[in-house]
Amino acid sequence: MKTYKHLYSQIYDFRNLLKSYYQARKCKSEKNYIIAFEWNLEKNLFEIQEQLKNCNYQFGPYHSFYIIDPKKRLIFAAPFQDRVVHHALYNIIEPIFDKSFIFDSFACRKNKGTHKAVGRLKKFMRAFGDDQFYIFKADIRKYFPSIDKEILFSLIQKKIADRKVLYLIKKILESTKEQKGIPIGNLTSQLFANIYLNELDQFVKHKLQVEYYCRYVDDFILLHRNRKQLQEWKEMIKEFLSQSLRLELHTKKQEIFPAKIGVDFLGYHIFRDHILVRQTTVRRFLRRFKSGKMPQQSINSYLGHFKYADSFGLMKKINKIYVERYPDFSQNLRVDALALSSS
Predict the structure, then answer these.
(1) 296 pLDDT band (50/70/90 cuts)?
(2) For residue 218, is it within any domain?
């Protein structure tokens, strides 16, 4: 396996730090802490550069908070200058690891994402030619808090041989007090999570030789004609996760079922010949929209989600409900519905 050295100077290269600053401030440029950082931008970046050069950069404390959309999650927000460093590291090492990831890993990667994952799954389902096959769907129990830092670091060492880069990564892993787990919210955590479950991907594709498999973060799906074969794979996957990664499947979120009933995945209910928006997603949107406090950005996000599915009827329904209460918004929806009908 090829290892990579002489990377550290690329991380603290001023051009990379400047690029990382703009990446970290994206969609947040009006925040006071970013305005303050930008006021002395060159000075702040040179200070970060000097500290990285001397290997004495100190990561600050996280600000933690909960979000609920749809389930409750604890998010850790790093100080802004730490986020600049995260981006600087990510820019250099992410392409190295991405080369080793399987095609059908879709989370937090360039030219991937939820819609690509859903499209790929639908393509897999259509490949069977009929509905006479089965689906095994599962996710990892408390994935991010369960990642073993020592195992993760050993996996990173298989690719990265630059001692200073490894030192910086170690500092990031040790920036939280917990012995296990990585913080949801860090850019680096997205990459680390993919590195960790790439082990599962390789096991499924090369050891089990599963043809139809895709994963998004810790949600994954296998398809096969034979239900018994899926059951065997399920047990082998559980054993592999436990022994190699110290992870376990979510007890209530692992099931094998006929493909003809469709599968819930990434906010959609997917069949061989069509895609629907999950009813829980629709209800959540309507509840938030009725409150009148839903930001336009969130509204646009939901509409983009709906438009990827066969949702002409849904868009008409939303138009009808809100045509009087929100005439301007309803007109926008009407345009979207017409666009759907002609696509």
Answers:
(1) confident
(2) yes
Distance CA 26, CA 24 (A): 6
pLDDT at 343 over 50: no
- Among candidate residues 261, 224, 241, 216, the one with its CA nearest the CA of residue 136: 224
Bridge partners of 46, per DSSP, are none
- The pLDDT of residue 53 is 97
Report field, pTM of the whole predicted structure over 0.85: yes
Q: Are residues 27 and 93 in the same domain?
A: yes
What range does the domain containing 41 cover?
A: 1-99
**221/138 Cα distance (integer angstroms):** 7
From the list 178, 129, 119, 122, the residue with the least C-alpha distance to 149 is: 178
Q: Is residue 34 part of a domain?
A: yes
SS3 43: helix
Burial 167-187 (b: 16+ CB within 10 A, else e): ebbeebbebbeeeebbbbbbb
Locus of tokens 């045509």: 323
- Total domain count for the chain? 3
Residue 329 has pLDDT above 80, yes or no: no
Q: How far apart are CA 107 and CA 75, in angstroms?
A: 18
Q: Which is nearest to 158 in space by CA: 119, 105, 196?
A: 196
Residues 6 or more apart whose CB falls under 8 angstroms from that of 230 comprise 134, 135, 136, 222, 224, 256
Q: What average pLDDT is seen over the chain?
A: 90
Q: How many CB atoms lie within 10 A of CB 100?
A: 15
The 3-state secondary structure of 120-160 reads HHHHHHHHCCCCCCEEEEEEECCHHHHCEHHHHHHHHHCCE
In DSSP terms, which residues pair with 213 in a beta bridge? 222
| CATH of residue 112 | 3.30.70.270
Under DSSP, is residue 213 helix (H, G, I), strand (E, B) or coil?
Answer: strand
pLDDT given at position 321: 64
